[in-house]
Design brief:
Its EC number is 2.7.1.49. Helices cover 38% and strands 23% of the residues. It has 249 residues and is an alpha/beta fold.
């Protein structure tokens, strides 16, 4: 069984964060290794508190995971501050130089409320094999209006990749329409992934997608294949695994 390291925050509602990461990895037959960067309080009113973990606690968790053996992929979610990002950028390549990193640049919660102050991900941006922002996150990262169509999505993906990202998967779920389209932009090429929009509003979908992609890479799929498998899993399984409707705002 391949192990995947997931780094991020806890979500007291259970709708996103490390709890959801564990569910996804279990569904894909991967072992979860966890590093908590922050504890968040989230409920029907959105985010009410965020507490970043002290540096020594984060380092101790990383060392504990390293003692268990290799990890085949790394997914990073909530990074509460620049100092934590710098710590990860120094430690991860040293301990797991071959493990692809999926960076999901979480800035706010689906239910409302900021989770990170500022949008500078530092050296982690260029270390990641893939970054997976949604449209509001891309707009915040670029200090630009949110992309209203595919043409603007392409421009945003190019601008994000120009900042040093090896590949960008810009998630288009916030666009209006019956289908949901994501854009993968790598060096010299782009590819659209489209499919029926999931019914209703679901918390933690972006988190789950990034983790599912990490699982696919850990199991030997190439990047497009991992994305296809992750999107297929979301369409067929996610409605059954989603959090209660009352928390899906």
């Amino acid at each position: 069984m391949k192990a995947v390291l997931v780094i991020g925050g806890t979500d007291s509602s259970g709708g996103a964060g490390l709890v959801q990461d564990g569910r996804v990895l279990d569904a894909f037959g991967c072992a979860a290794r966890l590093v908590v960067t922050a504890v968040t309080a989230q409920g029907r009113g959105g985010v009410t508190a965020v507490q970043a973990m002290p540096r020594d606690i984060v380092l101790a968790q990383i060392a504990a995971v390293a003692s268990l053996g290799p990890v085949a992929a790394i997914k990073i979610g909530l990074i509460p501050d620049t100092a934590t990002g710098a710590l990860l950028a120094e430690a991860l390549p040293r301990l797991w130089p071959q493990a692809p990193i999926i960076l999901d640049p979480v800035l706010s919660a689906s239910a409302g409320g900021a989770l990170r102050g500022g949008a500078d991900f530092g050296a982690l941006w260029s270390l990641a094999a893939l970054v997976t922002p949604n449209l509001p996150e891309a707009a915040a990262l670029l200090a630009a209006p949110e992309a209203p169509n595919r043409r603007a999505m392409t421009a945003h993906a190019k601008a994000l990749r120009a900042r040093g990202a090896k590949a960008v998967l810009l998630k288009g779920g916030h666009l209006l329409g019956e289908s949901a389209a994501d854009l993968l932009l790598t060096e010299g090429s782009g590819r659209w992934f489209s499919g029926p929009r999931l019914p209703g509003q679901r918390r933690g979908t972006g988190c789950a997608l990034a983790t599912a992609i990490a699982a696919g890479l850990a199991q030997g799929r190439d990047l497009p294949g991992a994305i296809v498998a992750a999107r297929r899993w979301l369409r067929t399984t996610w409605p059954k695994a989603a959090v209660p409707a009352g928390l899906a705002a």
